[in-house]
Design goal:
alpha/beta, Spore Coat Polysaccharide Biosynthesis Protein SpsA, Chain A, seven-stranded mixed β-sheet, 13 helices, about 55% helix, binds guanosine-5'-diphosphate-alpha-D-mannose, binds manganese (II) ion, Glycosyl transferase, group 2 family protein
């Protein structure tokens, strides 16, 4: 006798078609949403050859296992479990690249996005006149609904306004995480997309330039039922970083920008520590200066580990190794800094010019070297 599971699976395999549409669902701690989400897709996509790919960043709540349980019975359900990496944008990119269907959709896995929109989005793309369909909460007929707090709505408006101004992006909702595109477009742009943060759509549009033919469809953002939102201050900071970096035509990466900001904060930390060492501890200047340097380097290390490299975050013993290599990198950085500064000062004795050039040289060195030695992939 065949068990119901096996029977169910057999029927599903028999009905299997090469998918026309891949729905990419990034997940982090969404266990409770997995089954209802698949059920919602089954209903909404009836009559369409589809598959869904959960891209899970090794959620501690066992989201990947929950998705696999369903995948065992329904081959339209696929799971990518990423270990050692975190990041919504990166997860979306990886999901899109794992698809072989002509069309891919990206949406939240927490039922906040209206899946009944998917067939219409697909129909629009199939006409061949559009490359990207964006489900927008800000387009006529769409709404933020119950999905966002007042503070979040305010922040989201600010971010949108900035995006429109800085990037000349004509999207009503560039922060939307709900869109569908031709897979060929994703394939082409993928190497240039940032893997951190929540700004995947904005990144696609800014990177694709004016070439993309875009259409918007309104939708109402639903309230989250299970689990919590993962959008926090770091995500917002990261989004601002992308705006600035795109504004300067990708001249500087978001990472370098963040690294430089951390470096600037280090100067402040250094001065505060120096003052404390001189005044409170009554140390000799040279000793105090050395102490302050180590305090600033340590603070830079911790902040970079938390912010700049949070996707490659070091923990436990790796953190100690990382800290020591970071000290080493920074020591050489000081030499590079002083070397360049005095070289320039010899040619052109303008203190601020030489000083700035030296500091920039030190920052570039520290950034390049620490990305290879401290936060290596
Ligand atoms: N793989 C992976 N890795 N998935 C993640 C990560 C991550 O680091 N962080 C979040 N996710 C998943 C969540 O599990 C969820 O399915 C989806 O990405 C959206 O995350 P939420 O935490 O639910 O975001 P939100 O609802 O607060 O934010 C919504 O509004 C933003 C703009 O205001 C989303 O629609 C965002 O996409 C949108 O940018
Ligand atoms: Mn959500």
């Amino acid at each position: 006798m065949i068990s119901t599971d096996a029977q169910e699976r057999e029927e599903a395999v028999a009905a299997l078609q090469v998918p026309d549409l891949t729905v990419v669902l990034p997940t982090y701690n969404e266990r409770g949403n997995v089954a209802p989400m698949v059920e919602a897709l089954r209903t909404a996509l009836d009559g369409i050859a589809w598959e869904v790919i959960f891209v899970d960043d090794n959620s501690p709540d066992g989201t990947a296992a929950a998705a696999r349980d369903i995948a065992r019975k329904d081959p339209r359900v696929r799971v990518i479990r990423r270990v050692g990496r975190r990041g919504l944008s990166g997860a979306c990119v990886e999901g899109m690249l794992a698809s072989s269907a002509p069309f891919v959709a990206v949406m939240d896995a927490d039922l906040q996005h209206d899946e009944t929109l998917l067939p219409r989005m697909l129909a629009i793309l199939k006409t061949g006149e559009t490359d990207l369909v964006v489900a927008s909460r800000k387009a006529e007929g769409g709404a933020m609904g119950e999905g966002l707090s007042t503070l979040r709505t305010w922040g989201s408006n600010l971010a949108n306004g900035l995006a429109q101004k800085l990037l000349k992006v004509s999207l009503s909702d560039p922060m939307s995480g709900f869109f569908m595109l031709r897979r060929a477009v994703a394939d082409e742009l993928a190497p240039k997309l940032s893997s951190q943060g929540f700004k995947i759509l904005l990144d696609i549009v800014a990177t694709g330039g004016g070439k993309l033919r875009i259409r918007e469809l309104p939708f109402v953002f639903r309230e989250r039922r299970h689990g919590d939102s993962k959008l926090d201050t770091l995500v917002t900071l990261d989004y601002l970083g992308l705006l600035v970096s795109k504004y300067f035509g990708d001249l500087v990466s978001v990472r370098f920008l963040m690294f430089s900001l951390v470096g600037a904060s280090g100067v402040l930390v250094h001065l505060l520590a120096l003052r404390a060492a001189l005044v409170a501890l009554d140390l000799e200047f040279n000793v105090a200066q050395t102490l302050a340097t180590f305090v600033a380097m340590t603070s830079n290390f911790l902040l970079n580990n938390r912010l700049t490299y949070r996707d490659r975050r070091l923990t436990g013993f790796g953190m100690l190794r990382g800290l020591l290599t970071f000290y080493a990198v920074c020591s050489v950085g000081v030499l590079a800094n002083v070397g360049v500064a005095s070289l320039i000062y010899d040619q052109q004795p303008v203190w601020w010019l030489a000083g700035t050039a030296g500091a920039a040289m030190g920052a570039v060195w520290n950034y390049a070297a620490s990305s290879v030695l401290t936060w290596r992939k």
